[in-house]
Amino acid sequence: MIEPEVRRLLTLISGGYDNRKLSAVTAEVWTMELGDVDFDVAWTAVRNHFRKPAPREYLDLGVLLEQIRVDTRQTPAAIEEDVRSAKARGFIEASWPARQALPRDVAARLAAARMEFAIAAEAIEAGVVETPRALTVGTVGREVPG
Fold this sequence. Notes:
This protein has helices spanning about 5-20, 25-35, 40-50, 60-70, 75-90, 105-125.
C-alpha cells in the first residue's frame, strides 16, 4: 500500500471500530510495514479481526500484521499444511522444505484446487450430483505396486 491507502485504512478503522487519533507518524510507520500488502488484503484482515468473538478493542499494527498472516496462510502451521497438500497434489517436488512458503503461482493453484474440491463436495452433499466421480487429490503417500 502507498501512504494515501494507509491513511484511508486508518481512517476507516478509526471511524468504524476504535476511534483512534490519527497522526502523520502513525501513517508513516504503518506505510513502512504495510508497503507490500494490498489494500483489500489489509481491509479484509481488519474486518476479520473485529468479527472475532472477542476482538481487541484497539487494533494495533502487530495484531493487524498477524491477522494478515493468518488470512494469507503465512503462519508456520498453514505453510506446513499447504506444503503437504501441494506435495500430495504434485504441485511441488517432494524435496520442498516443509516450512518454506509456496511460490505464489503454486499457492494460487493450490487455492484453486481447494475451491474446486469444496464446490464438488458441496454439490455431492446437496445431492446435486447423483453419481459422484472420485475427487482428484493427487498422489498421497507411497505408490502401491499394482
